[in-house]
Each structure stands twice: as structure tokens, then as C-alpha cells.
Design a protein that fits this description.
heterodimer; A: about 300 residues; alpha/beta; Undecaprenyl pyrophosphate synthetase; seven-stranded mixed sheet; 7 helices; about 40% helix; B: about 450 residues; six-stranded parallel sheet; 18 helices; ditrans,polycis-polyprenyl diphosphate synthase [(2E,6E)-farnesyl diphosphate specific] activity (chain B); UPP_synth-like_CS (chain B)
Amino acid sequence: MARRKPAPRARKSTPLRTMLKSNLHLLIYTLIHAIFGLYVRLRMAYHAIYDRLLAVLYYHHRTPDLIRNDVKALSRLPEHLSVVLTLHDNGDRDAALEELVNDVGELSAWCASAGIPLLSVYERTGILKSYIPQTHTAITRTLHAYFNPTPPSLPPSLSIRSPSHPSYSPPPSHPSSPSTPPIDADVPAPEAPHLNLLLLSATDGRNTIVDLTKTLADMSQRGKISPSDIGAELVDAEISESVMGEPDLLVVFGPRVVLEGYPPWQVRLTEIFHVPDNSEGVGYQVFLRALHRYAKAQMRFGR
Amino acid sequence: MSSSLHLSQIRKWFLQSPPAEWAVQHVRELLLGAMRQGAVPQHVAFVMDGNRRFARSHQIEPIEGHNLGFEALAKILEVCYKIGVKVVTIYAFSIENFKRTKYEVDALMDMAKVKLSQLAQHGELLERYGARMEFLGQKEMVRPDVLDAIENAIKMTSGNSRAVLNICAPYTSRDEITTAIRNTVVDYTKPIQNSTKRPFSESHIARNIRARQLGTVTEGDEDAHNDFARLDDEEWNYTPSNPESKAAFDRIVSIATENIRSSQEDDVSFANSFGRKAGCLILERLKNPSLDEDEKKEAVTATLGYISSTAFAELLSLAERIQDWSPQPDLGSSASTTLYLSSSDPPSAPAAPPVNYPDPETITADVLTAHTFTGAHTPPLDLLIRTSGVERLSDFMLWQCHETTEIVFLECMWPEFDLWHFMPVLLEWQWRRRKESQEQRKRGRSKLD
């Protein structure tokens, strides 16, 4: 790395002395990093075991009731949950895509069970945006798998939107349509919850702001607005309209917090949660810990 | 309780004894020197959160907490500059902080005034490390006397060029982004000043193209071009005074426009801008008593490129209906030119040359980055550290930190933050860079195989 330049007012230092000093520094650097590398590996192992333990203790068993039970005690839930996912594209794109769809499906089911009405999924490449109908089918299948064992609760309806696409929510095709009378007429059929899924990609971040600037510059050139009309409220209104509002909670499923181009305007006050050294990817215990953290509640071992 | 207090006092006494101080000093120097051997983040940002909470938990005045926070800042700045960080950005005061009690805001401002001059003084921290102080945010929102102190500190350190200290006050990132958008729009609404005027004019080229397309007409063509050129420069002020004349003139203009459009392959804008001028020109020819009917037709053909005889007959009759036309001086003579030029009316607004603006499509994220407070030349933000366990960005550096920046939330309060809290973060950052470069090398090698 860059050698230290002799400070202007340093003592007269001989080249030998400088060399010895920098050699000593290099030695200490190597030593520190050797120890630190060991420490990081130990920490990772500890975290991995801890996370694994939590994952065993808190498992959803694909049962909405269990999930509901897990979040029952929380004082507040986010209205809008946002997550950062990564496409693990190691050459096999289909497998990576399948994994991603799977993760989004699980997340949707957890949100629907916990009662979070809006889930936005940020994935840098935006690959899901080009498969919205397929994604919808896959997630609906997951939702049915979760909600079917408990007949009184209908599987939630789902609509998928992305900033550049209109909302996609085909009418439900399963038999539980209003025409079939409820079995128990006295108890009104519980209304199926609705989940909105928003797909975001890198183009919904800076690019949106750039596009807005282009439009504003164009309008200003044609004398339709004056630059002094541009304020934070106007920008906020436009950006919220075209992409989304501010999420309440952002869960980063990577091992550390790097936003990877997540929409900057909207993360202003969002609580950002991550599990240090998370190696499991999208795990239910991470989701649950995020919700606990958001509600400022302690999570104890076991239910 | 008392024993722990006792212990901490003994520890303090020990650490402050000369030999211990000397040793600690040397260990620090050695550590910092060692850190320089690896990759060092070029731009680090701090959210100095937790001063008030620290004060509350230690039962001291909030302002005392801020004071301790400043001490911590000075120490951390020294560490940063020593290991070779180029830019340190700190969140000192949010626009939202003005909502705190007046007492606290005033106390903070007073403190800022003193500390700023302290930082910037000769021989003090910033000068020792060649750091320039910059203020990011809405400076005009602070008290005038504090603003003076700010300006003074900026001036005193402006000669330093090895490092930068960005102080964000009063700052919010949304305000920064909005300002960047606004300034970009202002920039793009400034007409392009052609410093070196090109010797070609658009209208001249358009006219030349027209002349080539109207190749069938040779005679009078040249005249027509000159006429158009003249019309370009000078304002034709024929305004019909009665409705009948107006209707007739409008019809002439529409015939002329129609004709130009058909010969220009539907170049609508050209036809529309020249239609009225061509109409005036035709009227001038038709009203010229010295020309006979054939000559008039030839002149009109020269102007429009082509005219059917029915259309020409209509034009003639229309010209008859216009009574208030005052004969213009002969267009061909040079005398008329001087007459025109001497006319007192300056060109009115519609005749002003079209203003050239930069193309908004050329706006990119980099253009906006250049308009942010940190500007285009600040290295990308490598590390953002927030103390006090709050896991939010709180409207800080949103534009700068949402891509590759590592965001680290620490549990300690800002006054407690020191080298020993900073070191693990730094080490981990270096460790990751090392791992990344190793992986890259491995991938490069496997590609070569």
C-alpha cells in the first residue's frame, strides 16, 4: 500500500529507520489481521450456531396461526415492510431465479400471516419484474400451502405491482368464490386478507430522481414552472406516487448493511434491520427478529 | 458501587501517570501506522448520535454531553486523518434540530462558535493534517454571528488540501437532493451561450434545402431567397385593420403555408414559421402596381415554389379585397433596406431568435451527484457509522450511501466512541477488502486457466 510520506516537520529520519519502521508496521498489520481474521471466523461461527438455534426454536411449520402467535405480543407492526434480496447468480440463472421466487413467496406468506399489508421487495437486477404473472402464480401456490390447512381463513389475495408496470391481480380462480355459501352461515366468513407486493430494482432508485429532474428541466425550459417551485414536498409527492412511500422497516438479508442501490429518497427514516453475519439468507427467525426489533421488544428463547 | 468508582479512579490515575501515558501513546501510534498498511476508506461519515442520552444517563447537562461529543469528534478526526482517510463527513446539526428547545439550540450554536474557531486555528487539528473545512447544508438558517464564525473557519482552512472535513449543518439529505434537482434545473434552463458563433445559420440551411427542392424554378429564385432572408431579420408589421382584410390575409397565409408544406414534405414547423412571412411577401408582389399579371404569378411561384392557376386566381381576388395595405418600398432596391433598418420598432418577442437550451435527456445521476453538496470530486462514501444503537439513516447522506457504502450501527453513545470502538469497524472493512481482492485474484486466475 501507499508508503507513508515523511511529514514535513519530522525528525531527520534516515532511510534505514524509515524502512525498519514501515516493516514493523507491516508486521503488526499482518499480525493484527491474522488475529482479527480468526476472531471474525469465530464470531461468524457463533452467529451461525445462534441463528440456527433460533431457526429451530422458531419455526413457522407453514402455519399462519403459529406466525400470528409469534407476533401477537408485539406493540406495533410495520404497515410497509421492505426487504433487500440478492440474486445469487453463480452461472445458473434458472436456479437463482427459482430461489428468489421461493424467498419472495415465503416472505409474502409470513407477511400475510402476520398482518402486514404491504411488502416491497428490492432486488438489484429487477429480474422478477419481467416474470410478474409467473411470480404471481408461484406465490399464490405458496399462500395456498400456508392457508389451506386452516379452512376458516381464506388464503389472502395478492396483487403484484412494480413502479413501471400496472398492478397485476388476476381474479381468484379457486372455488372459494362468494357464490359458494359458507358452511357455517352464522359465523360470517372472515374476509380474506389482501397483500400488496411491490417489486423494486436499481432503476427505481437514482434513475427515478434523474427522470424527475429531466421532466422538471424540460418544463422549466418551456416556462411551465420556475426552478423556485421545486421543493421537497413536490419531489416527495412525485417520487411517492411513481415508486412508493417510505417503508417503516427495511430488512437486509445479507450479512451486513449495504443498500446496493435501494431507493435513496424513501429510506430517510426507515428502521434498517439486519442480522450480523447472516448466512442463512431469507430465514424466518430473521424476519421475526426484525419485527421484534421494530416493536422494541425483547425476544426470548422459545415460545 | 463505591469499589467500582474507586477502581475506575485508580485506573484513571494509572493511565494518567507519565510512563503509562507514554506507552499508550506509542501503542496508538504503532497501531495507526499498522492500519495504514492496508486499504483505507477514503470517505467516512459519522452520525454523532447519543450525546443527549449519554448526558442523561450520566446525570450531566445536555450541553455537557455535546461538549464531550465534540472531544470524541476531535479524537476520531485525528485517527481518521492519521491513517489516511481523505474525507470525513459528520452530521452535526439537522434542519429538524431547530425544533428542539430554543435553550438547547442556542447553547449548541454558542458551542459551535467556540469550537469552530478552535478547530480551525493555526497549529490546531485541521492545520496539522492539512484538512479543509466545508459546510454542507442551509447555512443561511443559522444565526448571523455563527455564520460569521463558519465563514471564518472556512476561510482559515481553505488553503489546506490534503484532507477534507465536511460538517453537515443545518442539513437534511432530502433538502440536499432537492437542492441538487433545483440547481440542475436552473443549469439546464440557462440558454447555451455560443461563445464561438458558428458561421452557419439554421434558417439559411433550411432555405438552401428549399431552393434545391424547388429546382424547377430558376428565375427569381435568388430574389426569393434574399427576400426570405430579409424577412427573417426584419419585422413585417402588416396587421389588417378591418375584419374583411383580416379574413383575406389569413386565407393568403393559409394558402402560402399549405403550398410550402406540400413542397417541404410536411415540414410543418418550417411551413408555419414561414407561412406568415410568405403571405406578406406574396401580398407585396400582388399589390405592386408596376407588375402585370404574369409577372405577379412568376413572383409568387418564385416564393412558394409552385402555385396552381386556380390558387393564383384566388390569391389575386383576395389581394383585391385587402384595402388597407400600404405599399411597401420596392423589396429589390437597396434604398428600401436602409429604410427598413431605420424603422424605430425593435424586433418584438416572437421574432427573437429561438433560445437554445441544453438537452434535458443528457441529465444523468452523475450530473445530479455533481450538484449535491459533496460535489463530483468527493470520493464515494466507503463507510457510514452511526452510534447510539439507532438503526436509521435519519435523512443523512441518502444519495451518497445507498449503493456500495457499508453502513455500521454501533451500540455505544457518541461521547464514548473512540479508537477502540472504531478499530474493529475499520479492521473488518479492511478484512473484507482483502477478501474481495483475494477472490478477484482467484477468479482472474481461474479465467486464465
